[in-house]
Structure formats: structure tokens, C-alpha cells
Amino acid sequence: xxxxxxxxxxxxxxxxxxxxxxxxxxxxxxxxxxxxxxxxxxxxxxxxxxxxxxxxxxxxxxxxxxxxxxxxxxxxxxxxxxxxxxxxxxxxxxxxxxxxxxxxxxxxxxxxxxxxxxxxxxxxxxxxxxxxxxxxxxxxxxx
Length: 143
Prior knowledge:
The structure is a single chain. This protein is mainly β. Helices cover 0% and strands 34% of the residues. The chain contains no helices and seven strands. It has a four-stranded antiparallel β-sheet, with no helix packed on it. The model has no long low-confidence stretch (mean pLDDT 84).
């Protein structure tokens, strides 16, 4: 649901998915994305969260990995707000690269599959969280 100030990808209702995809393929070697996000909901338990995808092709259907299929080819950066493995290490930001042959492990929140991760309290903040994701000279940074 777009407005003048934001896009609401899903309502605050259980088991909902929403997606926004760029239809034009980017062919450069370096890139940067800057955005604000606000993930919120009632209570302490969150939904899965959201992802930024940098993949070789658009998925033909949705799926269980933040709205995308389990076997993607490319990079997924997950803003994971639900603690699937009950280790009290969420909300977290998790970067996972997949060559299309590995199935994402939801039960462990992708532990062991990530190239990097950090605990980050972005859920139910009073103000939007500012994000800068950058891939420059083969180095991925998140601020």
C-alpha cells in the first residue's frame, strides 16, 4: 500500500507476505542501496521480517524465505525479527549467499549459512531505522 511517505508491504496481520521487486536488471559491478525501514507489531514476538534481494533472476513465485523461494541464486540480506531457534539472538541482520542448490534452514535462522550477521534492535523502534547496504570492490558493508 503506497502513500506519499512510505510503502506498507504487509498489514500487521499474521501470515501475510508482500513484495516489491525492481523489474530492470542491474549490470554494474558496484552498488549501494539506502533506505529507511520500520518493522513493528504488537507484543514482543515479531513476524519473520523482511529481506533485500540481489539475485540473478526474479522469482516466478513467492516462497517461505522472506517471501521468496528457498533456493535462490544471489544474495539475500534478511532483517529477521522472529527467533525461530529460540536462542534470543533476534532481531538480527543476516547476509546469505546461495548458488541455488542450498535450502535455507529456517529452524536455525540460517545459522551456518550466513556470510555475516549481527544482532540489531530494529523492531518496534520509535523512529525508522536508516540502512545503507553497499557492495564495492567485492566487499559488502551494512551501516
